[in-house]
Structure formats: C-alpha cells, structure tokens
Write a structure and sequence with these properties.
The protein is α+β, with helices and mostly antiparallel strands and about 450 residues long. Helices cover about 25% and strands about 20% of the residues. The strands form five sheets. Strands 7, 9, 10, 11, 12 and 13 form a six-stranded mixed beta sheet that branches. Strands 3-4-5 form a three-stranded antiparallel beta sheet, with helices on one face. Strand 4 and strand 5 form a beta hairpin. Helix 8 packs across helix 9. It comes from Rubneribacter badeniensis.
Length: about 450
C-alpha cells in the first residue's frame, strides 16, 4: 500500500465532494442513516424507495453540460489511438474521429482516465492471476478494455494494485470461457441475480458448504452493524471467487419468489429484488425489462445460466456436479432445517434462514465474482503523475482512477471496504479532481 497516495485520497476526497456541492451545485444527500461517516452519497431527488437504477445518468449529464457551458470542448465518438511524446515527455494524443485522424496537443499534460480492463480477459489473467479463475461476469456496460493503460505501459509506466478488484458476490457464470477467449460476458447488475444472492444452500465442487458472511447490513454473526455493505458484498465476493475452480453452487426451491419479493432476509442495495411501481416518478429512466426482478431471472433461466429442474438429481447433473454430491448436500441441509440448527462449526446460519429445499421445481446456478472495476492500473504518485518502475515521473502524463491503480493496495481481492475508500464512482470523481488540481498547481494556479 502506498501510504502517501492513501493519505492524499483522504485529504482531497472531501474537498472534491465539497467543490462539487459549492461550485457545481450538486445537492448531495446521505444514502443511508447510519452514523458511520464516509458512506455513500447520492444526488438528492434521484432515488426513490424502489428505484436507484441508472442513478448516475443525471449526474454525468449535468456535469457534462456544466463543462460545456464553461468552455470545455467535449468530443464524442473520438477514439484515442496513441500518446504522442517528444524526448520522453507526453505532449498530446492521436485521435480517430470518423475516417480522420487528428493530433491534439497538450501544453500542460494528458490525463488518462478511461476506466480499467474488466472486459479484457488476457489483461485480467496477467494482472489478477490469483483470482482470475473466479471472475464470472462484468455487471456493467462492456466498455472497459484497458487501451489507455496499455498506452501508459507503452511509455514505460509501472503497474500497481496486482490482484485487486472491486467485485460483488453472486456473479453468474453465463458461460464457461474458452481458453483463449478475449472478452468477458457483461450482464448488468440488478438483472435478477438478486435471487441468487440470498443465504441459500451454497456449496463448492467438493460438496463443502461455502460460508455466507452476512446480509448487506448484518455481517456474521448476523447482528445489526453500523458498517453496512462491507461483509455482505465485497467479502462474500472473495469467498465465492476463491472456491475451487472459481465456482460456488447455489441451490433453492420454488419458495424463492415470495422470499425475495418480500425481502425476507432483510437485504439492501443490489441484493434486493425490486419491482418498480408504475407511479414511480423516475420510472422512465428504467428499461422495461428491469422494472421487475423476475424478468431478468427468467432471462437467466432461458439462457441456461440458471438451471430449473424437477428433481435434485436432475439439477445436480445440469450443474455438472459429481453424482450424489448435491443430493447428499440437500439431504444434510434439510435435516438441519428440521432440527432448527445449522451443522456448520463456523458461520452458522441464523435459524430463520434454514428453509428446506423440498418444493419443486428446484433452481441452481454457478456463481463467482461480479467484477465492477479493476483496481490494478498505472502506478501514480499523490500528484496523479504516472511513474516508471524506478519511480521516475513520466513528464506530461497523469492518470485518474480506474486507469490508475494502487488505490486499494495489492491483493485486495474484492475491494474491501465496498470498492475502496470512496467506492467506485466517487473514486473516479476524486481521481479526476486530484489530477486537475495537480496540473493547475504546476501551472501556478490555485482556483
């Protein structure tokens, strides 16, 4: 962990949020009522009780319009092809715009801030080797493929944040990837996978129980906590990612619909199976298929990502498990349900979670990491300047998160806590703010 970089984030982050409120007029509001500090913020008026889908659309549209009004030249459909350097100093960018290629000069610096490489399987395997086999899906648009990181590497940059991601639990294995496949699947979060992320029977390919570390708000031993999200999402992702062959197998029966719909397990955030009511004031921004979690769940069944079977034996075969393995696990589970006490020595389920698997049809799926962001990227200093392996600055080159790496240290498998110091979206805001501030400071400006 680069302690100096961590401290710089801690100092500059609140300034960034305050600047967005004071200078840009962003009406921040706390996203939860727990007195923990440094928790989630949202744009006031952009979340309803049932609807937080596409919440960032308004934010980014507002910020883009604000930038244009203040003279920023925003060019869409402009593909950055390469950095331009002169005697080791980055002085511009080669850009493709339609059939034309143009060179844009940069008098004060180039900031690489185009996301990470979640979609790029060769890069995932190279820079996240310990957890690569457990990364199932990207729950975001399929755009972060790592080109800007590779541009920095072409200038001799070092990398930081190996084996670090921002991942959630319950990533569905929509397919088994071929050995030399280059792209991940990308199925958006809140697509019905909420049904798979409850404390059902979880096992690995050896038939061993996979621990469930907590609901969204209640980490083990499943008591109320003042620190939401941490165990329930990122730590659970680590558990599922690191199972043998990177697969965790989830099994439940037809009672799931009522249990998920009523939020029986008292989940939060993206583990809640939500149905958006027709009179929701923000319903127009939600695609029709996402207005009821059951639609996405059925899509997974139709695609074969979730198996639906009449018997446990059939489900066992459909999931590719060894004969008798799931049957035995379900028998042991049902016996514990009847006894009212979990048989695990550690991470025993709350007795109210012991719901027998005895009403067909039966459902099952292979799950692993839902990788939102890569936390490995170009090594930077607290001024957001890109560094060479020897620590020298690459003149004229800056990087923001998540093109930059190291914000979460090394080997932070799923991004504890909750994606990092500021989470993923806010981390991007803070990185851009810090890079712009450093460039202004180098130019003798403070405002």
């Amino acid at each position: 962990m680069d302690v100096g970089l961590l401290r710089a984030q801690a100092v500059e982050g609140p300034k960034c949020i305050d600047w967005m409120a004071d200078a840009l007029g962003v009406p921040w509001a706390p996203a939860d009522d727990k007195p923990t500090g440094m928790r989630s913020l949202h744009w006031d008026g952009q979340i309803t009780a049932a609807n937080s889908i596409n919440i960032n659309d308004h934010t980014f549209n507002y910020l883009t319009d604000f930038a244009v009004e203040h003279g920023v030249d925003v060019r869409l459909s402009a593909e950055a092809k390469a950095l331009v350097s002169d005697a080791g100093t980055v002085v511009g960018v080669k850009v493709a715009m339609g059939d034309d290629e143009v060179f844009l000069g940069a008098k004060k610096g180039v900031v690489l801030t185009a996301g990470g490489f979640e979609m790029n399987r060769p890069m995932l395997e190279k820079y996240l080797p310990s957890l690569f086999d457990g990364l199932a899906n990207v729950p975001c648009p399929p755009y972060n493929t790592g080109e800007c990181i590779r541009m920095g590497l072409g200038m001799g940059a070092d990398m930081a944040g190996y084996d670090s991601t921002g991942s959630y639990d319950g990533g569905v294995w929509w397919k088994d990837y071929e050995p030399y496949e280059t792209r991940m699947t990308a199925h958006v979060n809140k697509d019905g996978n909420q049904a798979l992320r409850q404390p059902w029977l979880l096992i690995n390919n050896r038939g061993e129980r996979v621990p469930y570390l907590g609901t969204t708000y209640q980490p083990y031993p499943y008591k109320p906590s003042g620190c939401p999200y941490v165990f329930g999402l990122t730590d659970q992702a680590t558990v599922e990612i690191m199972q043998p062959s990177g697969r965790t197998y989830v099994c439940f029966d037809s009672k799931y619909d009522e249990l998920v719909s009523t939020n029986y397990f008292k989940q939060g955030v993206c583990r809640v199976g939500k149905t958006i009511p027709d009179d929701d004031p923000l319903i127009d921004r939600v695609p029709e298929w996402q207005r009821d979690w059951r639609t996405g769940f059925q899509q997974m069944i139709d695609a074969g990502a979730v198996q639906k079977c009449d018997t446990i034996e059939e489900l066992e075969a459909a999931l590719g498990l060894s004969e008798g393995l799931l049957v035995s696990a379900v028998e042991q589970w049902n016996a514990a349900c009847e006894a009212g006490e979990d048989y695990l020595d550690a991470f025993k389920y709350d007795p109210s979670w012991l719901i027998p698997i005895d009403e067909p049809p039966y459902y099952g799926a292979k799950i692993g990491g839902n990788i939102f962001t890569t936390k490995c990227g170009l090594r930077i200093n607290p001024k957001m300047q890109v560094l060479k392996p020897e620590g020298d600055v690459i003149a004229g080159l800056y990087a923001g998160w998540h093109t930059a790496g190291g914000a979460n240290g090394e080997a932070n498998i799923a991004g504890k806590p909750f994606g990092g110091m500021y989470g993923d979206v806010c981390q991007s805001f803070v990185g851009g703010y810090m890079a712009a501030g450093a460039i202004m400071e180098a130019d003798g400006k403070t405002d």
